[in-house]
Amino acid sequence: MAPILPKLPQPSPGTAAAPEAISPLRWAFRFLRWSTYLAALITIILILKKSPAPPVVATPQAAASAEQKLTQVQESVSQGQTATLRLNQAEVNSYLANHLELAPQNTLPASEPPQASPSAPDGGPGPLTSTDIDQAKSSVKDVKVTMEGDQVHAYVVFDMHGKDMTLDLVGKLGAQDGYLKFEPVSGKIGSLPIPQSALESAVRQLMESPENRDKLKLPSDVSDLRIENGQLVTTYH
User: For residue 115, what pLDDT is reported?
Assistant: First the structure.
């Protein structure tokens, strides 16, 4: 007589199956994917967040002072003399306010919101393209300059697809082979720091592009240009 085996309990039709275990590789993939989304979101937020404008003074009196100094220097140069032009921060900003051709405030049509550039290997925004640079140059709304020691800080507000954005550049001015030279030290788009490699690449594109070479050419009588003790110093011969 064959032995009677006990019946194993059968799962009832309403009993849920055990959840499938998720492999560590799949967890890592999900974490990487959502981390990428989060990093892109943070990058866009920082780019759109305008950095505060530096406190500068621009007055008609300072603009007149800058014009008077420039006239005196030109008279000296016309007489064959070497002359040095020194402009303080107020005079520089007042002169720029009177002579820069800026885009009208809040009159450009709105379009698509700005997109974040592809990320660089170090996690920051990718190198600025020539299209980005051309769009920024064509829609500059405001420029403010501060000078400290031998460095200049340029604060620029520009329109990018209907959205006001800011660019902060800190560096050193100079003259080389008759052209303006700028050595970047640091920079930000909005509140997002620009990696040094991307910053140097963007400045190099601006300085070396054929359409900008003529704009960066200094007058033939300018032999030196620099920031010294918080002043813009230009030497004429």
Answer: 45
- ∠ Cα 164 227 102 (to 5°): 30
State the pTM of this model: 0.68
Residue 70 lies in a domain: yes
**23 vs 59, residue with greater confidence:** 59
Query: What's the full length of the chain, in residues?
Result: 237
pLDDT band at 202 (very low <50, low <70, confident <90, very high): confident
Residue 19 lies in a domain: no
What are the structure tokens assigned to 207, written together? 């300085």
d(Cα 112, Cα 10) in Å, to the nearest integer? Answer: 60
Structural domain that includes position 130:
39-112+120-236
Q: How many CB atoms lie within 10 A of CB 139?
A: 19
The count of domains in the chain is 1
* Inside any domain, residue 16: no
Q: How far apart are CA 147 and CA 235, in angstroms?
A: 18
Helices (H), the chain: 24-48, 60-78, 89-99, 130-138, 196-208, 210-216
155 and 171 Cβ atoms separated by less than 8 Å:
no
In a domain, 25, yes or no: no
